[in-house]
Amino acid sequence: MKLFEEFIAPRITNFICSHKAFTGQRKKVVPLARGRVLEIGIGTGLNLGFYDPDKVDHVWGLDPSAAMWKMADPAGVKFDVEFLQASAERIPLDDGSADTVLVTYTLCSVSNVIEALIDMRRVLKPGGELVFCEHGAALDENVRKWQERLNPFWSKLAGGCNLNRSMPALIEQGGFRIRTMETMFLPVWKPAAFNYWGTAV
């Protein structure tokens, strides 16, 4: 089990999350981050190359998996990157530390999403912004029915990833107000293809 968690699972996750469809979405949202940024679920650092170095001063990369971070290569970035090994529900930062909280393809697998979002809100400065890009429950009823059927099995196979979470509802339940949001189906496996991205305050 330890071999799978430390060597196999990080590589599988990195391979899936490196798909060109997800990379295209990262290019849209990551440059919106500014100032001191807390990235939730930094994983192998797939977002690092998309930050705007003229807008970012410092990035805290939070992830419970040190094995994932070992695969990252932050050497070429033009801002400070600090890895925090912790869960999203217990962020080891003071209140009002960050100008931006960035989440990309992470809320699907957080155990307690509302608790995590409340803590993200705590660490944001007044006027700070949540930038998000997530897959979740489709607006198409037929796809959503398949998401519901598959989710119990998928979640066990995919490290806790959930196909059927309504991301806008969860973000608002966590105390945020969505400022901008777009949606679309990405050209990937249909049950995991419905994407939400935007900003919230």
What features would you describe in this structure?
With 201 residues, the protein is an alpha/beta fold. The protein has a single domain, classed as Vaccinia Virus protein VP39 (Rossmann fold, 3-Layer(aba) Sandwich). 33% of the residues lie in helices and 27% in strands. The chain is built from six helices and seven strands; from the N terminus they run H-H-E-E-H-E-E-H-E-H-H-E-E. The protein has helices at 2-17, 20-29, 66-70, 113-123, 141-157, 167-173, and strands at residues 35-40, 56-63, 80-85, 98-104, 124-135, 178-185, 194-200. It has a seven-stranded mixed beta sheet with strand order 3-2-1-4-5-7-6, sandwiched between helices. Helix 4 (113-123) links the parallel strand 4 and strand 5. The termini are far apart. The mean pLDDT is 91.
Entry summary:
The protein is of the alpha/beta class and 201 residues long. 33% of the residues lie in helices and 27% in strands. It has a seven-stranded mixed sheet, with helices on both faces.
SSE map:
Layout: H1 2-17, H2 20-29, E1 35-40, E2 56-63, H3 66-70, E3 80-85, E4 98-104, H4 113-123, E5 124-135, H5 141-157, H6 167-173, E6 178-185, E7 194-200
Parallel strand pairs: 1-2, 1-4, 2-3, 4-5
Antiparallel strand pairs: 5-7, 6-7
If helices are DSSP runs of H or I spanning 4 or more residues, what is the number of helices? 6
Architecture in CATH? 3-Layer(aba) Sandwich
CATH superfamily grouping:
Vaccinia Virus protein VP39
**Average pLDDT across residues?**
91
Shape: globular
Listing every helix as H and every strand as E from the N terminus to the C terminus, the arrangement reads HHEEHEEHEHHEE
| Cα-atom radius of gyration | 16 Å
**Total beta strand runs:** 7
Distance between the termini: 40 Å
The CATH topology name reads Rossmann fold
Q: In CATH, what is the class?
A: Alpha Beta
Describe the biggest sheet? 7 strands, mixed
Share in helix: 25-40%
